Input
Amino acid sequence: MLGLDDKTFLQRTYGETIGKVSVTGYCIRFKRLADIDADVLQAAIRHGMTASA
Output
């Protein structure tokens, strides 16, 4: 998620609800798709696309 000014945004916004993942300043890491809430991931990606546009 490049283009985010606030490196804590992903963790604060999606960290609690996205699933069994590791969220850092610009990365959302997960091992299996089953570990992640696809709707929340989609929302994070959409936000990243609009923030960097």
Observations:
- Strands lie at 22-23, 28-29.
- The CA atoms of residues 17 and 40 lie 7 Å apart.
